[in-house]
Amino acid sequence: MPENALMKGTKLAAVCALAAHVGLAQTNQADSVLAFRGVTVIDVVAGRARPAMTVVIRGNRISQVGPSSMTVPENARVISADGKYLIPGLWDMHVHGIGNPGYRDFANPLLIANGVTGARSMGRTTLADILHERDAILRGEVIGPRIVASSLMLDGLYPVWPEAAAVQSPEAARQLVDQQKAGGADFIKIYSLLGRPEFFAVADEAKQQRISFVGHVPAAVKASEASNAGMKSMEHLYGVLEETSSEADELLARDKVNREQYLTARAQGSTEPFLGLLESLRIWYRAALTHEPARADRLYKTLVANGTWQVPTLVVIQALRMTTNRITLGVERIRFFQTTPRLSCAS
């Protein structure tokens, strides 16, 4: 599909999402009806475009889909959508910041305006703040995507981020899994510095509590081991790049040394913001250069057999290659903000 056609589709998807939220916010308006007539529906099941369709939304649910000639309810607000496209709502599977002050004015409208109607919140804010924002959106008080909420991030003794929990023992790991599930988390999020005994304690406790665990493959664990332990999704291809290299053993050993050097430096009081990142980038770059298809095939079969998903966050990898920390936002994007944001690539 041409790029401009796809853009029209995402904008119309955003209109549908906004309409749904407006319907939620209007007291006793559950029967309000909106009809898009003449729209081209992108049928993702059949893999084709279905032109000249009518889509009827009642309240916050799609109630009818049919040809443009179909009769719509008399009380429907009809929008002519000739030449436009309608797609299913998109999901952003790796979002940080939901629940932060100001985030709802900045990112929530931008997600909806680009057709993203669901988001998997991956931490950096408290679970209570994430759930508060999720509930406000569900009540129609705030425009934003449906949210699936992460637990507090579970990291090693000296966490990368101050918002994360420093997990010091397998027993503490189990307690945190229990606490975060009881607090309303939809899944458990683990991070890069989590120790090997603590990782497997999280995996076992998550299984017993019937809650998924996802996140970074820690440096102390191989991707195949994490998958076999039940890890539901892996972020940023961490561990995957190393294990699919012809130099896998060497690169995995460098990961562990990098982790130990980080922990030692933190214990000695280092406050360097991106400690160890440069070595990690070198490892990933070398892994990409030495990719071995046979090793990759073995790992991929393991991931498929275990139902382990990959969330590569390619935009993050692209950002790491940027030579500037400034982001220029065009007028087309800035108009979605209530206030003009000032941004930097800090994470």
- Terminal CA distance reads 33 Å
* Biggest sheet record: 6 strands, parallel
CATH structural architecture of the domain at 3-86? Roll
| Quaternary organisation | single chain
Radius of gyration: 23 Å
The average pLDDT is: 86
Q: Which residue ranges are poorly predicted, with pLDDT under 50 across at least 5 consecutive positions? A: 1-11, 20-28, 340-347
Say which CATH homologous superfamily of the domain at 3-86 is assigned: Urease, subunit C, domain 1
Structural classification: alpha/beta
CATH class of the domain at 3-86: Mainly Beta
- Largest sheet, order of strands side by side? 10-9-11-12-13-14
Global shape:
globular
Question: Which range best describes the helical content: under 10%, 10-25%, 25-40%, 40-55%, 55-70% or over 70%?
Answer: 40-55%
The topology string of helices and strands comes to HEEEEEEHEHEEEHEHEHEHHHHEHH
| Total beta strands | 14
Question: Care to give the gist of this entry?
Answer:
By secondary structure, the chain is α/β, with parallel strands linked by helices.
